[in-house]
């Protein structure tokens, strides 16, 4: 086994050139980049456990830190299950793309075409694409408390009135893409959890990814910790599975990144589904909105990537510029998605043209900017 060398920061670029050949120096250097990014971050933000997967030209390396559970002291591994929050939206988007590829829906369909209970509401004039891209007219980030249950959400949608013309403004929203996922599963004739766990996830080759963690995998499920370091797991809510409900590991997410970069390894409907999620539908503030995924020209400066994943992008409305026709996946682009629950923080980024990607999962919700910095540092080494 290679011993860790004492390379200085100026040696990183040189080592990156050696990485593809799999030399000890390159592996050691990547370890130093990850260690130097992650270890201070965990200390600063009180993160108990964190796992990183680095995908580089078909190979995956894992870097695991800390513990999955303070009570049991179980160490984090690449099989540890983390809540990934809104990274789940990329799975929901893929399910919708699969439903379209299977002839069950069209993104141009009005939402009420797929649920009779929505007929006569604002959703007679709102498309599935607008739901999937947060542009139905101002659905909020979260459901109001009174509507945040399976039994009350439809009543909320039936009474809801857009604040903006559908398609005019982007306002990031769990109810928006959550309803898209709900209707996509309806079109496939299954409840969402069944459609995800029995149809989509197996076809993607994911064997340790769940909406509901089964009892025999409970020992792998990390304990999350909130801002006060109290133990917490995600709770039930309206369209929770669709918007932020996936639990998975860095090993499975690394595989997910690889099939997103190489969809030709999948069946035809899933190839089409992934192409749909990678398509650009509109631009806003330098970011191109795909389905679930968001992307940028690559290479990209760190600050631009931080700005694209900022609080203002999530909390404020932004005027959109629709692409007509929709844009096929560009040659050089960085795709990414952040995700959080009260006790977990996730980030995934990948660059298909370079065949590189990064997955970062932690059992603490910490600022998006810090996740982006770690990923950018790693990709800057790999992408040269």
Instruction: Give the helix proportion (percent range).
Output: 25-40%
Q: State the CATH class of the largest domain.
A: Alpha Beta
Which sheet architecture does the biggest sheet show? 10 strands, antiparallel
Rg, Å, rounded: 20 Å
**How would you write the strand order of the largest sheet?**
3-2-1-16-15-14-11-10-9-13
- What structural class do helix, strand and pairing data support? alpha+beta
Average pLDDT works out at 93
Going by CATH, the homologous superfamily of the largest domain would be DD-peptidase/beta-lactamase superfamily
List keywords for this structure.
384 residues, alpha+beta, two-stranded antiparallel sheet, 20% strand
Description:
The protein is an alpha+beta fold and about 375 residues long. The protein has 2 domains: about 1-45, no CATH class; about 50-370, 3-Layer(aba) Sandwich (Beta-lactamase), CATH 3.40.710. About 35% of the residues lie in helices and about 20% in strands. It is built from 13 helices and 16 strands. The protein has helices spanning about 10-20, 25-45, 90-100, 130, 155-160, 175-185, 190-205, 240-245, 250-260, 270-280, 300-310, 310-315, 370-380, and strands at about 50-55, 60-70, 75, 80-85, 170, 225, 230, 245-250, 280-285, 285-290, 295, 320, 320-325, 335-340, 345-350, 355-360. A 10-stranded antiparallel β-sheet has the order 3-2-1-16-15-14-11-10-9-13, sandwiched between helices. A hairpin with a 4-residue loop joins β15 (about 345-350) and β16 (about 355-360). α3 (about 90-100) crosses α10 and α6 (about 175-185) packs across α7. The longest helix has 22 residues, at about 25-45. The chain is globular. It starts with 11 loop residues before the first helix and ends with a helix. About 50% of the residues are buried.
